[in-house]
Write a structure and sequence with these properties.
single chain; 431 residues; alpha+beta; 51% helix; 3 domains; elongated; six-stranded antiparallel β-barrel
Amino acid sequence: MPNQLSLHQHELVSDEIHEVIGYKPHWIVRRGNFIFFLIILFLLSLTWFIKYPDIVNTSARLVAINPPKLITAKVEGRILKLFVVNEQTVVKDQHLGYIESAANYEQVMKLQNWINRTMNVTGENNYDVLISDPLPDLSDLGELQVNCQAFENEFSETKQILSGGYYQKKRNALQKDVQFLSILKTNTTQQKQLLEQDQQLQQKEYSAYETLAKDKVIASLELNQYKSKLITKDQSLQQVNAQITNSDMNKHNKEKELLDLQKIITDQQQKFRSALLNLKSQVEKWIQQYVLVASEEGKVLFVSSLQENEMITNGQQLFFIQPNQTRVYAELMAAQNRLGKIKTGQRVMIKAESYPSDEFGYLTGTVSYISNIPSRRDSFLIKVDLPKGLQTNYNKTIFFKNNLSAQAEVITDDRKLVDRLAGQLKQIWER
């Protein structure tokens, strides 16, 4: 009977149900809850290691102490000569090249060197060098030719007066006259001293004979003879005094002539110095206009590919001089919103607008200063030091331009993701 019941039940269940009942589930279905638990546990463990920082976004600009100096063309024309190549190290005032001009560059440089030499030696009142090192014969000075011609006239007059010419010889003669008069006065003074001694002796002798005459020892006629000798001595002494006075007058006149002559010489020195400085100023003005000069020591960087005989325009940017020592930092302007979260020592990521971050990367810095006083726009100045300079996280160095615009991200709190989740759950729980 049980067998018949079992057979009957088997007939009541279809083959499809038998197939479903007899199917063994896949292992992932049988152990799915356990695997899901492991995945959840793994994700939770990742929150311990993953950091999600708080970021304050703001605008920034790159600033440098002693930034690269731009050299531009002052006139329009062809670059006749280039003396440097790209990235060459140069020194201050080194000539990088020169632009087409009516003046010959070599002759202008020759004139400038002569001016510098002459200014050094004439500054020590050594005008004899005007004969040993005369003004070069220059005939291709272009714009400077008129100025040089005007200076040549002053130069010729100065050379005649100051460099072994008539006035110099006359001054030497007057100085010798003064020396001779001084010697003559010294001799006359010595004679005067001797005459004064002789006169004193004669005075004593006369006084003695005068006493004898009062005592009637000698006759009055004999006393007159001694008095006559005394008067002769006095006259000789007065003549010597007159000679000394006359010598002083002659010496004084010679000294006046020397002063007048010295005034002529001094005036000519000043005129020559003024003409020399004026010519020097004109030469420097020409150099400033037509010669490309390094503003300081550093590395010269070409703005574009320059070649000799290439036409350039007035104001065209030609070179940058990158100093050997420069310090670059960033200035951020942060609004009052979330300003309290920014503190010194926090890390900053700076993305220069001229250098896309996906290609060049970003600069890393550290907050070094936060202003306590807001600006006119109600924002606060923040200074950021750049320990690696202008080298990005891609190991690329961007070229600096002063006030280069950028976007900055200040990492105010670099917390773990689990801390953030815990904080969110805590806020939900407290509500």
